């Protein structure tokens, strides 16, 4: 069995392109990973990795070997999980990166219920909107909203979101009520992380580039700025439900609200996710199936 020593470490280094990142992923020391890979190379009689001060990359022989090894390692992980799945309790720490009111109000609640079902599991939710490095930051998956860039990550749709445009009565009294999306170009708009707002016009989509005096990536702040009359806001309907019901903000442009915005679970290649992350993702997808704003 010693001939299999170092395979897991080698695959982790190849995937993360670094010994430190691989060690963090495996929960061991960098020296252990380096030692195991070096011993593997000695047994094989060839270099699998090309090491520089900044980057670790696969050699030609390493690339061929990696293609074989990754399936073996994945198969072993799956076999171990299948054998123990009926007699285990999830443990360790599930780390989730989140952003937005939807995550605060709904995803957090769902993960609390998931945590109740698995009392040995710790859950760490980090609320921020920055791009995360899943390996270096130790993040299992992220909850993100809106259009996703093609980053090579895996994305599963969590929920479709109905958009809503609103403004304060005082702002509309002073600046007039826009009748069509294109008129937003001459209005002060409260910009979140996207200054190109999408509307549905005549069966198609119309994108309007907006600008304004206030910009924030925090939904609570956007709502408050809108209440203060700083401009027109356009976010998922749930962000405004309470203030609209209270009459503090007025919906506008209703015939043109987009129905295509979505919240997503984003993560690395599914084969290398720990079981706690895969089960949490499946739980959230099932939890929000059929969910409506």
Question: Can you give keywords for this protein?
Answer:
293 residues; alpha/beta; Arc Repressor Mutant, subunit A; D-Maltodextrin-Binding Protein, domain 2; 3 domains; five-stranded mixed beta sheet; three-stranded antiparallel beta sheet; 9 helices; 37% helix; elongated
Structure described in brief:
This protein has nine helices and 14 strands. The chain has helices at residues 7-16, 19-26, 30-44, 60-84, 101-117, 169-175, 219-227, 241-245, 275-287, and strands at residues 49-51, 56-58, 92-98, 121-127, 141-145, 154-161, 163-167, 190-191, 196-201, 204-209, 214-215, 233-236, 250-252, 261-267.
Can you walk me through this structure?
The structure is a single chain. This protein is α/β, with parallel strands linked by helices. It is built from 9 helices and 14 strands. It has 3 domains: 2-86, Orthogonal Bundle (Arc Repressor Mutant, subunit A); 89-161 and 262-287, Periplasmic binding protein-like II (D-Maltodextrin-Binding Protein, domain 2); 163-258, 3-Layer(aba) Sandwich (D-Maltodextrin-Binding Protein, domain 2). The chain is 37% helix and 23% strand. The strands form 5 sheets. Strands 4-3-5-14-6 form a 5-stranded mixed beta sheet, covered by helices on one side. A 3-stranded antiparallel beta sheet has the order 12-7-13. The longest helix is centred in the first third of the chain and has 25 residues, at 60-84. The chain is elongated, with a radius of gyration of 24 Å. The N and C termini lie far apart (54 Å). The model has no long low-confidence stretch (mean pLDDT 86).
